[in-house]
Design a protein that fits this description.
There is one protein chain. The protein has 261 residues and is an alpha/beta fold. It has a single domain, classed as Metal-dependent hydrolases (TIM Barrel). The chain has helices at residues 13-16, 19-28, 44-53, 77-84, 107-123, 135-144, 161-169, 186-194, 224-235, 239-253, and strands at 3-8, 31-36, 57-61, 89-98, 127-132, 152-154, 173-176, 200-202. It has an eight-stranded parallel β-sheet. Helix 4 links the parallel strand 3 (57-61) and strand 4 (89-98).
């Protein structure tokens, strides 16, 4: 049994300061691969260094929708394209829209999302999409900018089934985090039950959103096993089957990620 944590931030100080131990615990929990996701270009070098040092850790390049609010030129199209073209990078993002943390005129956020989609299409690497309380605009921009040509994943999905279905119809995958284990997460559970088995991923979004029974603690990649076990029970499948499905899905979505035979 091998799991993939399809979205984590092990470059963040609270995990990076004890990275060796974090990765050992992940290995002991059956987590064979991780995707360390970029939230800004300034720290991308740290993610790339981790990926060089650990062959089972993959890298993405992108700028989170809440990073440097209102600064449209951060990133520029050229800087983002250069970062995403690095051979170590397997995906573009995380990108998207977040109206929960941002308010006012958010045209800069939409512009940033459009840049990421364009870069993803140009370099041929899939998108990692973050959306929170921005369902209609997220799906509209994905359609307008041809995101289906690049493909990708709706990460840490916490929105409703119609939004998930719209993304699935564009060929996207849906990644479920520890939120699915939370008491009041009925909407996420509905999505988690209905995503086709060949489009499902699991993730931690560590160091955030630790699943039950670790809720309240700092999250880390090892805990993706809790989410996967919960998902298997929710979907009425064997745990090993779900682990195999989500791992196969990850490497199908991210073909530049090298899988050890």
């Amino acid at each position: 049994m091998i799991l993939v944590d399809s979205h984590c931030h092990i470059d963040f100080p609270e995990l990076h300061e004890n990275l060796g131990a974090v990765l050992e615990r992940a290995k002991a929990a059956g987590v064979g691969y991780l995707l360390c996701v970029s939230v800004n270009l300034e720290d991308l070098k740290n993610i790339i260094e981790i990926s060089h040092n650990y062959a089972h850790v993959f890298a993405s390049a992108g700028v989170h929708p809440n990073h440097d609010p209102g600064i449209v030129d951060s990133p520029t199209y050229l800087s983002l394209r250069e970062a995403a073209a690095d051979p170590v990078v397997v995906a573009v993002g995380e990108t998207g829209l977040d109206y929960y943390r941002s308010e006012g005129d958010l045209e800069w956020q939409l512009d940033r999302f459009r840049k990421h989609i364009a870069v993803s299409r140009e370099v041929g690497k899939p998108l990692i999409v973050h959306t929170r309380q921005a369902n209609d605009d997220t799906i509209s921009i994905m359609r307008e900018e041809g995101a289906s040509d690049a493909g990708g994943v709706m990460h840490c999905f916490s929105e409703d089934w119609p939004t998930a279905k719209a993304a699935l119809d564009m060929g996207f995958y849906v990644s479920i985090s520890g939120i699915v284990t939370f008491k009041n997460a009925d909407t996420v559970r509905e999505v988690a039950r209905n995503v086709p088995s060949d489009r499902l991923l699991v993730e931690t979004d560590a160091p955030y959103l630790a699943p039950v029974p670790e809720r309240g603690h700092r999250n880390e990649p090892a805990f993706v096993a809790h989410t996967a076990r919960y998902l298997a029970e929710l979907r009425g499948v064997n745990f090993d089957t779900l682990a195999q499905q989500t791992t196969d899905n990850f490497f199908r979505l991210f073909p530049l990620a090298i899988r050890n035979s």
